[in-house]
Amino acid sequence: MKNPITFNKDFRFNEVIFENRNKAYGAYAIRNEEGSVLIKSLFAGVAFFAAIAVSPLIINSFQTPVTVKAPIGPYILKPVDQYTPDVPQNIPAPPVKIIEKTVKLDLPTPVRDAVKQVPAPTVTETSEARIGLENTAGETPVSDHIPVAPPTVNTAPATVLPKAVNNNPVTAVDVEAAFIGGINSFRAKVVNNFDAGAFEGSGGLMKTTVTFIVEKDGSISSVKAVGQDGKFNTEAEKTIKAIKGKWVPAKLNGEFVRSYFKLPIAMQFE
Questions:
Q1: If we measure between CA atoms, which residue out of 135, 137, 106 comes closest to residue 119?
Q2: Helix, strand, coil percentages for the chain (3-state, nearest 5)
Q3: In a domain, 245, yes or no
Q4: Which helix (H) or strand (E) holds 244?
């Protein structure tokens, strides 16, 4: 808002600025109408906030008050049943106190006249009464001694020891060990794998007997050759060990066992 005191000065100032210019342009009109626009805005704002403040009063003036009427009329009172406590039936009678028989246990007082001594209670009297401070005639007390039951001995079942397994190789069996493919196939493998180059030209017949153990898993072990020529024996053992293949182990009493097997070997060299 422009100050009224300085309004004329501002107007003259605007005239000076826009002298010889196009006063129809918007800037000249805005500067001259600035004060009136601010005054209008002020009154519009005050009117808006006054309308908001007065609106609740105007709304309440149109509402109809609600009147709550109190109930009128006689009140009917209903009698309440009197509380009757439950009386327990069959009240047990108080236990009757039983007077037990007691006997006073005193040692006899030594006196000059032994006949006048008061004898001590007998064993029967003390067994049929409790020891007390005086002799009381009453019922024989019931013993409250509860005998202790003997301890129960749990008898564990007899331990079944595992059957001893004889793992020693046997010579007598029910079913002999057999090479898978037949014994002739095994002999052919021995002949084909035997290195006879070191014995050519000897011009003789060489013999040996090879003994080995057929294990339960079908393998062989403890190969030993017995013959007159040591070199021939060594070559026979080497050949037997190098043969690939499995054996069916021998059986004794329906079970597989380790067993000895003997294989004679004879070769003629020119």
A1: 106
A2: 30, 20, 50
A3: yes
A4: none
Taking only the tens place, the pLDDT of each residue in 115-144 is 555 666 676 776 667 776 677 776 777 666
Q: How many residues does the chain have?
A: 270
d(CA 69, CA 142): 83
Q: Would you say residue 116 lies in a domain?
A: yes
17 domain residue, yes or no: yes
CB 269 within 8 A of CB 186: no
Containing structural domain, residue 218: 178-268
Contact 219, 246 (CB under 8 A): yes
Domain count, the chain: 3
Render 35-103 in DSSP notation, one character per residue. HHHHHHHHHHHHHHHHHHHHHHHHHHHTSPPP-PPPP-SPPPPPPPPPP-----SSPPPPPPPPPBPEE
Look at residues 94, 91, 120, 85 and name the one whose alpha carbon lies nearest to residue 105.
120
For residue range 181-237, list pLDDT tens digits in order.
898 989 888 888 888 777 776 667 888 999 999 998 989 899 999 988 888 889 889
Q: Are 58 and 100 in a shared domain?
A: no
Question: Could you tell me the two tokens for 89?
Answer: 């039936």
